[in-house]
């Protein structure tokens, strides 16, 4: 993480300020305040209430595993190589959490990564990726395919 | 969005975050995923979000005429292409890409938010009828014909002729085709909004003479702009050479339906020019004035539309080509695109059938590429891949 000069000099004198977050699976995690400040939902609460940072802030929609991934991503300054180690489920969980926590930079980063992943993929790949049930009749689907045949060329293997 | 469920583990706003970053061609394929996905590409909120996220200034729509067979029949070609590829190798990009072909009667009036306006016409002895279609090359969806507008030839004096243009009014979020119609001593501005079934007369003002071969209007910041002669000039009536001092820009405000007059760059050299020569276009969202004179080719950009002092000379090229004209129409050089960092400019030298890659950093010609002499009249418009519908939803 990039730190401003003020933060750095403070860090020399005292421990880095931390906020305790409580994840959906009941794990208490101490997180550096610079990372917590990227989470608009937590930041606005802390700023308004000047809360006691030792009382855990509850995140009922974020698991400890997902929070771990988010912290690592932010610490690594959104490293592409690190993100490439994520499973599809992890990508989706981080995206949903980024949206819930209102982390704008992370949301943009992950949404762009998933969008890139979907390029040139087949319809079947998309259904699997998002767990979507096809609600078309075979005739309806064939009709839509027929009117847009040109978009089914040069696809990647699933 | 519609009542059909997105049937996914992800909530809709999160799906929108992803899908607004997916290219149009892929989204058109994903229409087959489910009913929700089929409706997505025409959902107004999603279309708008996708347009906002589409990368700007990375693509152009290239148009040119080409011979299609042994009988030398000509067609109009339209080709959306990436600026990066075009600057890298223009000949290969034009050759290899799949361009769309139209009959030659069509004229491209302009491109806004990835939507192209094509005009067709019937020219009679006493009058002409005109109608337009809207076309999105990314989704390959074309609208029906608009209602016709009839223009009477008897109304035109000297070399004056009606002028069409296509623009987008971002304040009312509507696409508009504008025609300047000369009526004896006055000029009428008539407007067709995409989806309407009429042409409205919106403004009557003093005649503003515009060169006969002007390609169309330049649409910037909700205004349509044409280059023509200042009121003080009388050059057009005598059909004689004028100087660039006589030039002015007629600017029509699409929202307020008013007009104003803008000045051309102060530093424009005061050479005598043929009525047809300087061209007004849009590049990277800026008004762009290009001008060929005495073996020189100058391009000026107006960095801020509202600031007349923001004109600056973007490039000067000594091309060494002799000037010539056919039937009084000058065949001149057209700016096709500018690289991302503004370092390279690709030009089409229509008279020598060559693309010129100009290096702005070193102020020299980097490379020349010949194109097939069967192709001609290369022009370009700013283009963006979008889902914008060519009809009213």
UniProtKB/TrEMBL annotation, chain A:
Residues 18-74 form the SKP1 component POZ domain. Coiled coil: none annotated. Residues 104-150 form the SKP1 component dimerisation domain. One of its GO terms (biological process) is protein ubiquitination. It comes from the Eukaryota. It holds the Pfam family Skp1. Keywords: Ubl conjugation pathway. SUPFAM superfamilies: POZ domain, Skp1 dimerisation domain-like. Pathway: Protein modification; protein ubiquitination. Involved in ubiquitination and subsequent proteasomal degradation of target proteins. Together with CUL1, RBX1 and a F-box protein, it forms a SCF E3 ubiquitin ligase complex. The functional specificity of this complex depends on the type of F-box protein. In the SCF complex, it serves as an adapter that links the F-box protein to CUL1. Part of a SCF (SKP1-cullin-F-box) protein ligase complex. Belongs to the SKP1 family. PANTHER family: SKP1 (PTHR11165). This is SKP1-like protein.
From TrEMBL, chain B:
It comes from the Eukaryota. Pfam families: F-box (PF00646), FBA_1 (PF07734). PANTHER family: BNACNNG10540D PROTEIN, F-BOX PROTEIN CPR30-LIKE. Residues 4-49 form the F-box domain. InterPro entries: F-box-assoc_dom_typ1 (IPR006527), F-box-assoc_interact_dom (IPR017451), F-box-like_dom_sf (IPR036047), F-box_dom (IPR001810), SCF_F-box_component (IPR050796). This is F-box domain-containing protein.
